[in-house]
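Figure S7 source data.
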Amino acid sequence: MSNEKESEYKPYHHPAGGWGAAGATAKVLMEQSVLVKGSRGLLSMNQPGGFKCPSCAFPDPDQRKTLEFCENGAKALAHEATKARITREFFKKHTVTELMLRSDYWLEMQGRLTEPMRYDPTTDRYVPVTWDDAFAMIGRHLQALDSPHQAEFYTSGRTANETAFLYSIFVREFGTNNFPDCSNMCHEPTSRGLPPSIGIGKGTIVMSDFEHAEAIFVVGQNTGTNSPRMMTNLVEARKRGVPIVLINPMPERALIRFTEPQDVLQMATFGSTPISSEFVHVRIGGDLAIFKGMMKVLFEAEEQGEDVLDRDFIAQHTAGLDALRADIMGCGWEDITRISGVSEAQIRRVAEIYKKSRATIICYGMGLTQHQEGSRLLQQVANLLLLRGNFGRPGAGIAPIRGHSNVQGDRTVGIDEKPTQAYLDRVRDAFGFEPPREHGHHVLDAIAAMEAGSARVFIGMGGNFIRAVPDTERSYAAMRNLDLTVGIATKLNRGHLVHGRDALILPVVARSEIIRTDAGEQFVTIEDAMANVTASRGVFAPVSEHVLPETEIVCRMAMAALPHSRTPWARYMVDYDLIRDKIAEVYPEIYADFSERIKNPRGFHLDIPPRRRVWKTPNGKANFLVMPGLEVDAPVADGAMLRLATIRSHDQYNTTIYSNNDRYRGVYNTRLVVFMNREDMAERGLENGAVIGLETCSDDGVRRYVDGLSVIDYPMPRGAIAGYYPELNPLLPLDYFDEISGTPAAKSIPVRVVESVASAPPLRIAG
Ligand SMILES: Nc1nc2c(c(=O)[nH]1)N[C@H]1C(S)=C(S)[C@@H](COP(=O)(O)OP(=O)(O)OC[C@H]3O[C@@H](n4cnc5c(=O)[nH]c(N)nc54)[C@H](O)[C@@H]3O)O[C@H]1N2
Ligand SMILES: Nc1nc2c(c(=O)[nH]1)N[C@H]1C(S)=C(S)[C@@H](COP(=O)(O)OP(=O)(O)OC[C@H]3O[C@@H](n4cnc5c(=O)[nH]c(N)nc54)[C@H](O)[C@@H]3O)O[C@H]1N2
Ligand SMILES: [Mo]
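C-alpha cells for the predicted MGD complex:
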C-alpha cells in the first residue's frame, strides 16, 4: 500500500477554518478539474441573482459579502460542477453486480449522470432509454397498481419549492399521502415535537438575532463541518463577549477554536478566536438531564425569591407551569449528574449563564433529534426557553440547524405524510380534485410496506434513500421486492444499484445550472432554516442536452400517470410563475403575492407566529409540556453496552463521500473507525488502533454486525462511542426510533465490541 493511502490518525492541533479551509477549497476544485469554472460559480453562490448553495440550509447574512460560501459549500459545488461524466459507455462497461462492489466514494467520483437509463435484467446493465419511454414506463406501472397507496414517493431536501409543490399535487391527485422524505430521518422531531409546545415546527430566530443574543447554546451540532457559515455568527458573538455553551460528547474542533477564512488579518497572523466559553462533555443521550438540571436551578432560585422567571410572559402566554415545576423538582441531582455525565457544579455554571442572559438562542442538530425520545426532548428545550420568555424578543429563540438546503421548504409546500385536513381542503379548492384524507407513509412505514410486499413502486426525487435508511441489509432486501424503482438524480449512487425488477435513472439539471424552457429562463426558490425564501438561478449550462429540469420530470410523470388530469401540467412545466401563483393560492397566509414578493433580490421572510408571541396551538398558548424521567433512550441491561452515535465526517455530504479524510478529528484515508474513551478501551483490552467488530444489542433475533473498525483513543465520555454514517447503518435497527416523529435514533445505537474476523489494514497512529 502506498504511503499516501495509508490510513492514519493524527490529532489536529490547529484552530479550525483558516488556511486549512482555504487549501481544502482549492484542492477540491482542482480534483474535480473545475478550478476556473468552480471559482466563477463560487462568485455567484448565495448572491442576489445567483444560485443557492446546494449544501446546507443556513441563511445568507443580512449584510452581503462579496464571497459568501464555505469550504464545504465549495466541495458541494465542485462535485456538482465536476468535469467527470457518466455516459452510456460507462454502463456498457460495468454490470450492476460489479458496481455494487464499488465504494460510495468511487461511485460519486465517476461524475454527473448525462442521459436517462433503464435497467436491463438480461445483461444486468443499465441501457439508454428515451425520456418518452421512461415516462411511459412510470405511467404504466403506476396505473397498474391496485391502489395508489402501493407507491412510495420519496423526496430529499435539495428539491426546490416549485418542484416539491407540484410533486405533492401530482401524488395527491394520484391518490396517496405516501411522502417518505429525508426530514423523517433528520429534523422530523422539530416538525412534530415543537407544534404542541410553541405552535410551529420551525425555528424562531432570524440572522440578526445573533447580533442581539446575550448567550448562545450549540447543542449536538457540528457547526464547523455541517453549517460552516454559522461560524461567522459565532465568531462575531464571541468577539462581543457573548458566552457560547457547547454541549456535545465530542469536543468538535471548530467550536473550540476557529480562524475565519474571510478575516484577512487573522489569516495573515495565524490568529484565531476561541469559540465556546463552556464545553459540556455530555454523555450520549444525557442532554435531557442537563436541561432538567438547568430548569431545576431556575426553580430553586425562584423558591429563594430570586426574580429568574419571566413572570409576565408566563402569565400572559403560557400554560402548564405548575406541572412542569413539579416534574423538575422531583428530579434528584444524583440522577441528573449520573445520566448526563456532567457535574452539578458545571450544570449550575451553565444555568447561571442562562439566568444572566436576557436573550438566549439555543441551536441544535442531530445530536438532539436522533434519539428515541427526540421529539419530547425538544419540547424540554422549548420549556427552558419559555421560562425566561425567550421568544418574540430580539436575540432570543430556538434554532434547529436544518440539514438539506430546502428541507424546510419542502415541508412548507406540501411534502408531508400527515397533512392537515384544512390544507387538503385548500388543495381541493385550488385544483378541483379530492385529495386522499388518510395519513400516508413516512420512511420507516415505506420500508415496512416494501418488506410486506404491499409497496410496488418507489420514486426517489433526489437523495439516496437506501443508503440513508437504517438496517442496511434488511432495507436492501425490501427495496429489491419492488416492481419499479426510479432514481431522479445528479449522481450515480447505491440507490440506483439496489433496485426493483424494473428500474430507471433519470438525470437532472443541477442547482448551479440554468433552467431553460419554452417560456425562457426559469428560476426556482428555496426556504432556508430561518424561513427566508429566496430565488435560485443557475449560472452554468446544463451538464448535457439530455438532462431535464426536475419540475419537468414531475409534470411528465403526472401526465403519464394521470391521462385524464385537468391540472395544466404542460403549462406549469414551462412557466414557473404559474406554479408560484398556485402556491400563493394554497398558502395565502404566508405566500400571498409570491410572484411579486420574490422579485426582491433578497427574497422575503415567512411569518413565524412565535416571533410575534402568537401561538397556533389548540389553547392559543405556548405550552410547558412534561416529559417524565431523565432518559431519552431506553436503558439496555448489558454491562458491556456502549452507545454509538453515527455522525458525519468533514468530507462528506450525507451519503456522498468527498474523501476518506476527517481533518478536524485527525482521521486520514479511512472511514472505518470508532472513537472511544481510553478507559472503555482499557476495560476491553484494546490498544489505540486495534481492529474490532461492533454488534448491535437487540433481542429480535437478527444479528447486526460491522467488522474491520479501527479504534481511536479519543476524548469521548465513558460509555459513548462514535463512527461514521452511512457505513455503520447496518447496526441501526429499523425498529429503533422516536415514536412521535418516526425518526431513527441514529445517535444512540446500543452496541458491544466483538472480535474482528476481517483483515483490516492497520491504522497508523501518529504523534
Ligand atoms: N458538509 C456537510 N454539511 C451538511 C451535511 C453533511 O453531511 N456535510 N448534512 C446536512 C444535513 S442533511 C444535516 S441534518 C446537518 C447535520 O448536521 P449535524 O447535526 O451537525 O450532524 P452530525 O454530524 O450527524 O452530528 C451532530 C453532532 O451531534 C453530536 N452528538 C451525538 N450524540 C449526541 C448526544 O447525545 N447529545 C449531544 N448534545 N450531541 C450529540 C456529535 O458529536 C456531532 O457533533 O448538516 C447538513 N449540512
Ligand atoms: N445512521 C445515520 N443515518 C442517517 C443520518 C445519520 O446521522 N446517521 N442522517 C439522516 C439525515 S439527517 C438525512 S437528511 C438523510 C439524507 O438522506 P438523502 O437526502 O436521501 O441523502 P443524500 O446523501 O443527501 O443524497 C445524495 C444524492 O442526491 C442526489 N442529488 C444531489 N443533488 C441533487 C439535485 O439537485 N437533484 C436531484 N434530483 N438529486 C440530487 C445525488 O444523486 C446524490 O447521490 O440521511 C439520514 N440517515
Ligand atoms: Mo438531514
